[in-house]
Amino acid sequence: MIVIVDERDRVKEGYSSLFGREGVPSAGFCASEFGEWISTAAEDDLKAVGAFLIGECDNHPVSPRALRERCGAPVIALSEQHSLENTLKLFELGVDDVVRKPVHIRELLARIAAIRRRAQEDEPYAEIGNLRIYTNGKDPEIDGTPLPLPRRERRILEHLANNRGRRVTKTQLFNAIYGIFDDEVEENVVESHVSKLRKKLREKLGFDPIDSKRFLGYRLNV
């Protein structure tokens, strides 16, 4: 989930719409609401955040360093002032990247993925036998051949790969693929997505790479 912080409703709504077209859940906050939310949000909710986009927040400035105390997701400043002085100031405040508007939504997603890869100091994929799972939006591959998956099944597999070695609860998977503020979809839909994903993987691999434990969640058999 991408969190957008900006005082202007049209900006938040515009980015949310664009992210939605790419199948990426998002949530928009004005700066004052964001300060309250980030200080009280549950840890599971924060784990679902893929990045923070900080826009116009002059009345209630957002501190990237304080933000990082609660969540390690990338912090990207959206700048409308095309000046070196402003860009350097934003980096000094602690943001991970400064993007000048206007910017294509796919470029933002690519920048977020690049920052996360550098932070992990790892390859942008995980391997389980002959299965390669990319964490940058590409379909997984089996023996080098792409396995096309519906967007939400692919995102579940990516999220499990990003958390390989750890269990991920149903709630965490739901937050990752639908966002934490989507109350129009039942959380149990995750079980259906996971069931379909496991069936496809079993058919291609000959084994089930996803281990599940009731009440504990899911984990990749790495």
Automatic annotation (TrEMBL):
Keyword match Nucleus: no
Ordered alphabetically, the record's keywords are: DNA-binding, Phosphoprotein, Transcription, Transcription regulation
Q: Which CDD domains match?
A: trans_reg_C (cd00383)
Per UniProt, what is one GO molecular function of this protein?
transcription cis-regulatory region binding
Biological process GO annotation list?
A: regulation of DNA-templated transcription
PROSITE patterns for the chain: OMPR_PHOB (PS51755), RESPONSE_REGULATORY (PS50110)
Identify the residues that the record assigns to the Response regulatory domain, covering every copy. 1-116
Per the database entry, where does the chain bind DNA?
Answer: 123-222
One cellular component term (GO) for this entry is: protein-DNA complex
Domain of life here?
A: Bacteria
PTM 4-aspartylphosphate: at which residues?
D58
Would the keyword Transport turn up in this protein's UniProt record? no
Query: Ranges for the OmpR/PhoB-type domain?
Result: 123-222
Q: Which PANTHER family match?
A: REGULATOR OF RPOS (PTHR48111), TRANSCRIPTIONAL REGULATORY PROTEIN TCTD (PTHR48111:SF67)
- Protein name (record): Response regulator transcription factor
**Lineage, opening ranks:** Bacteria, Pseudomonadati, Pseudomonadota, Alphaproteobacteria, Hyphomicrobiales
